[in-house]
Amino acid sequence: PLKKAAKQAALADDSEEEEEAQPMSYDEKRQLSLDINKLPGEKLGRVVHIIQSREPSLRDSNPDEIEIDFETLKPTTLRELERYVKSCLQKKQKKTYSK
After folding, report:
1. 22 — phi, psi (to 5°)?
2. Total domain count, the chain
3. What are the tens digits of pLDDT across the range 18-64?
4. Which domain holds residue 71?
């Protein structure tokens, strides 16, 4: 079964990914919200893009003033945001240490 799961993960397309995303706990959503607020302005466009590309109901929202309701976002959207935000913050921290 492990090999099969690994193979499926390697071949995962969006539909399989939808099923595999772990729902976020309240604390994880809170942390994600705090982390998004730490991002510099130029990184927020990608956050909006991720949300709008995965949440059809938010496609028509104004990208300049999008309101994110973490309770209504799909687990896959939240996990993708989490990955993106973590990668941004890790790069930011590395820059800070190199001074």
Report:
1. -75, 130
2. 1
3. 457 899 999 999 999 999 999 999 999 999 999 999 998 888 777 67
4. 30-90
